[in-house]
Design brief:
Elements lengths: L1 H21 L2 H22 L5 H15 L10 H9 L1 H11 L1 H10 L1 H29 L9 H4 L3 E2 L4 E3 L5 E3 L7 E7 L7 H14 L2 H5 L1 E7 L7 H10 L6 E4 L3 H10 L4 E3 L6 E3 L2 E5 L4 E7 L2 H5 L1 H10 L4
């Protein structure tokens, strides 16, 4: 009796599998899974992280798959396009061979098509979650302490006199007696500038109102020829930046001279207009000297709030 039941179960399984493979469900599932995979890769490549476990996973994924450099923000876009285009031949094959069952499934059984697509989405999501869990298990469990004394410097900050997003003139002398966080971004950047601005906003949110009143943020434009006051104002508004945030620009030669003195590396892709640049934060003490120079790498970015509080705790000489 048991042998008969087992044979019946096997027959039902084989029959169901045959229907799944010969009908429109299998190609619909396969194409949906490939499309969701492409969406996953696009998210991994182009969506700016928000910090935390997600940000750590995203940075690790980009370094492994796209040769991402956290310090410069450089990423091998060719690898991104390869991973995005790899499924296209398979999608075309599935569609060409099973186009009639696919058309029939789409036209007459939309609910079944949606169920299959949902199953494909669930599969890709589970793979993504498992990868994130694997990345977290391999990550360094503890954050390195901030080496305040070893990193401390007293470098000269180049003087400047530029205009912020509100049209007000801003100079280095205006910040005497206050702590200043200096960085460099540009308005149309879609790679690491959003990460840097998000980090700045996160740090400002962590400070008390009294601490924010005792400091300022100055972001120099990396694209002085194109960063208009309107664009810089839009960036400040989109990231919820208020005083003490100054997105400054001016005569291109003057802006570039300051960036050169700060050793902010940058190169422009003439075909795309994209600017590849180093991602740096300079922290000025109350005397206007560069006390700390930190990058966007995981450890150094986590030290930003600690470095600011070290300087905020100091009194003017």
């Amino acid at each position: 009796m048991n042998n008969i039941q087992e044979a019946q179960s096997v027959n039902r399984f084989v029959l169901g599998a045959s229907r799944f493979l010969s009908g429109g469900r299998f190609p619909a599932f396969a194409i949906s899974a490939l499309v969701f995979y492409q969406i996953f890769i696009a998210v991994m490549a182009f969506v700016p992280p928000a910090g935390g476990a997600w940000g750590d996973f995203l940075e690790d994924f980009r370094m492994r798959c796209f040769k991402y450099d956290p310090k410069s923000g450089w990423m091998e876009l060719g690898s991104v396009w390869v991973m995005l285009s790899e499924p296209l031949p398979l999608e075309a094959i599935f569609f060409f061979i099973w186009r009639a069952p696919l058309r029939e499934l789409w036209q007459t059984r939309r609910a079944a098509f949606a169920q299959v697509a949902a199953g494909a989405l669930l599969l890709v999501s589970l793979i993504g979650v498992s990868l994130m869990g694997l990345g977290r298990s391999q990550a360094t469990p503890t954050e390195l302490p901030f080496p305040a004394i070893n990193l401390r410097s007293a470098l000269v900050m180049p003087s400047f006199r530029l205009t912020n997003q509100e049209g007000h003139t801003v100079s280095l002398a205006d910040f005497k007696g206050r702590v200043v966080l200096v960085t460099a971004v540009y308005s149309t950047c879609t790679t690491t500038c959003p990460m840097m601005l998000t980090k700045v906003r996160t740090v400002l949110d962590q400070l008390t109102s009294a601490e924010r009143d005792d400091m300022a943020v100055v972001a120099f434009s990396l694209n002085p020829e194109a960063d208009t006051r309107e664009l810089r104002g839009m960036i400040a508004k989109s990231y919820g930046m208020k005083a003490p945030f100054h997105f400054v620009n001016g005569v291109p030669s003057e802006v570039n001279a300051v960036l050169d003195k700060l050793n902010v590396a940058r190169t422009r892709d003439e075909k795309t207009g994209q600017i590849m640049h180093s991602n740096l934060f300079f922290l000025l003490d109350r005397e206007g000297r560069i006390a700390y120079r930190l990058s966007l790498s995981q450890n150094e970015a986590s030290w930003l709030i600690s470095a600011l509080r070290v300087l905020l705790a100091e009194k003017s000489s």
